[in-house]
Amino acid sequence: MNGVITGPRLVTVRRRAVAVAVGGPLVLIVLLGLIPMPNHGRAEGVVMAERYSDIFTEVDGRLVEILVSSGTIVEAGQPLLRLENTELNLTLGSERIRYQEANVRRQMLEAEDLAQVSFLRKWADAIGLRVADLEVRQENLVIRAPHRGRWIAPNVHELAQVWLPRGLAVGRVVDESEYYFSAIVTQTKSHYLFQQGAEDIIRRPEVRLRGQAGEVIPVNGLKIIPADKQYLPSTTLGMLGGGDIEVDSDPRGGGRRTKEPVFEVRADIEPGELPVVLQHELSGVVRMRLHDQPYLWQWVRKGRQLLQERYRI
Predict the structure, then answer these.
(1) Is 186 helix (H, G, I), strand (E, B) or coil?
(2) Of 46, 50, 51, the residue nearest 179 (C-alpha)
(3) What is the pTM of this model?
(4) Which of 176, 147, 150 is nearest to 69 (CA)?
(5) Distance separating alpha carbons of residues 174 and 150, to the nearest angstrom
(6) d(Cα 142, Cα 121) in Å, to the nearest integer?
(7) Which structural domain range is residue 73 located in?
């Protein structure tokens, strides 16, 4: 080996060989460690409507009538479902009779026994409050749309003639006029969010949706939500919903409570003709152009992130 390096064959080209052997790695180091190259950040997210409402039953009752089919555009106050509660109706009728009786007895004794009249007045007022509460509950047997939007309840027909407890989710009304993209960034990948002027550093964001990755959704910049969060905007981002973010297995978290705090980045979707079909909670990815950085430093950062994710160091 020594003869190969110092032999007579390399006498005429030794300098060139040394230059190539030493200069090649130096040039590579310069290219990788000093010359800024394109740098990108990436985050999973979902399309979210600016206004939407989950619809819950506000009183116990049997679902006796589905007034609007799922997928229909509804107006504010439009009836969606009708429940029936015979016991509630009977109780309301009984309390109305008691209220009328209390008022009649009060009027009969009004000029005779002031103490008795005072008692009957308080009794009638208490029954009146009870009647008013029951009337509100009776009105809530008809479930109405809180605002204009699309009524989404694909499984509501399975609940027909079923007794529904108070607080049961039966559907959702989504206003489709405005959307934004909500992306979630984990702590290990959030380095660029906390640099000075972070929103200016993030340039040319591109949003692509699952199943429609060939089309780019136009967005109006990004807004960084500074506070850390414990809940995801949608269950589809968590591991229980097919996403990549670790979530708490406790059912009380609804598949949205994260094991570690995360950060949110929002991008307003430009209104107008879009190359894709938008749906509430449709998942996708936002790709963000950051300040250019040498590849070597990008690789070092990604290596640290990988170690933090896998070994918590």
Answers:
(1) strand
(2) 50
(3) 0.72
(4) 150
(5) 5
(6) 33
(7) 58-82+142-167
